[in-house]
């Protein structure tokens, strides 16, 4: 049994009759609590970079700094501003996704070029993240010939969901680690997109909560690599709109796999000989 919050009203008619009205307001209260949490989280996420920015502005205004030092400060300020920009961007994306209905089918989106773009972005991100250590990630993508398929949906959304999962794999896997992106077709016509990493892995107690807005296991690690804590919430929404559920399996210290299976009716294989161009 779960605890329930009831709103109870008793009406007396004066002739001895009474009317008792009770309403289950559990979900109403839960929604209200979630909204409050969300506003508190957003405020906190915006306040932190803003405080840093204001601090730097004041320093620049009051202290006579050497040119080098001034440049370093401006660089740090740009970093904080970019962080706020990503946060606002993700918030807008999330509210747009939550507010708009499921797309009927979208358009047939060729998978090969979409994954190609994900791969280019992934290599650039991996280079950036691992520049200091000098040791790159091993990134594996399916060859174009294995993904001559169209997915019904909204291309930009699919691209952002896939890229998000891949960038998480890179950001939470130490340099030199292994990241494999796969596309597996099943006998019933459905197919699974998966991103497997050899990274830090996730404790089972966190797995179920990762798609909550702002839920992060290691706040500082997430911030360090430019995370907003909204990525997986967005991914979950996008996948749901495309008929797929996000599935997470992970072993702490060994790595994680994030996957989504698309139903057959959302997929269309290319005819033999069609190059997809
Ligand atoms: P963030 O912007 O913090 O990365 P996400 O919503 O994308 O936000 O992810 C939420 C949290 O899930 C991350 O902060 C991180 O703790 C965890 N996480 C996501 N992907 C991975 C992964 N591949 N390996 C380990 N932990 C991950």
UniProtKB/TrEMBL annotation:
GO molecular function annotations of the record: ATP binding; phosphoprotein phosphatase activity; phosphorelay sensor kinase activity
Domain Histidine kinase: 41-266
Functional note: Member of the two-component regulatory system PhoR/PhoB involved in the phosphate regulon genes expression. PhoR may function as a membrane-associated protein kinase that phosphorylates PhoB in response to environmental signals.
Keyword annotations from UniProtKB, A to Z: ATP-binding, Cell membrane, Kinase, Membrane, Nucleotide-binding, Phosphate transport, Phosphoprotein, Transferase, Transmembrane, Transmembrane helix, Transport, Two-component regulatory system
Localization per record: Cell inner membrane
Enzyme Commission number, as recorded: 2.7.13.3
Catalytic activity, reaction form: ATP + protein L-histidine = ADP + protein N-phospho-L-histidine
Protein known as: Phosphate regulon sensor protein PhoR
Shown segment, full-protein numbering: 163 to 439 of 439
GO biological process, one term: phosphate ion transport
Gene Ontology CC, one term: plasma membrane
Membrane topology category: Multi-pass membrane protein
Keyword presence, Nucleotide-binding: yes
């Amino acid at each position: 049994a779960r605890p329930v919050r009831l709103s109870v009203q008793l009406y007396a008619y004066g002739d001895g009759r009474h009317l008792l009205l009770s309403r289950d307001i559990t979900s109403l209260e839960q929604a209200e609590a979630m909204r409050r949490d969300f506003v508190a989280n957003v405020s906190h996420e915006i306040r932190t970079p803003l405080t840093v920015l204001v601090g730097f502005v004041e320093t620049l205004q009051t202290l006579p700094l050497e040119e080098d030092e001034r440049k370093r400060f401006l660089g740090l300020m740009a970093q904080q501003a970019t962080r706020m920009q990503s946060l606002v961007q993700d918030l807008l994306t999330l509210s747009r996704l939550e507010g708009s209905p499921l797309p009927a089918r979208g358009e047939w989106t060729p998978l090969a070029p979409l994954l190609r773009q994900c791969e280019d972005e992934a290599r650039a991100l991996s280079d950036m993240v691992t520049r200091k250590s000098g040791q790159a990630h091993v990134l594996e993508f399916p060859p174009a010939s294995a993904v001559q398929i169209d997915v019904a949906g909204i291309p930009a959304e699919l691209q952002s969901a896939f890229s998000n999962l891949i960038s998480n794999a890179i950001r939470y896997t130490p340099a030199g680690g292994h990241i494999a992106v796969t596309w597996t077709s099943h006998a019933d016509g459905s197919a699974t997109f998966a991103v497997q990493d050899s990274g830090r892995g996730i404790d089972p107690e966190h797995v179920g909560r990762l798609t909550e807005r702002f839920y992060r296991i290691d706040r500082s690690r997430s911030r360090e690599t430019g995370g907003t804590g909204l990525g997986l919430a967005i991914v979950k929404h996008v996948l749901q709109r495309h008929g797929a559920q996000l599935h997470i399996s992970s072993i702490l210290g060994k790595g994680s796999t994030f996957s989504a299976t698309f139903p057959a009716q959302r997929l269309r294989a290319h005819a033999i000989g069609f190059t997809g161009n």
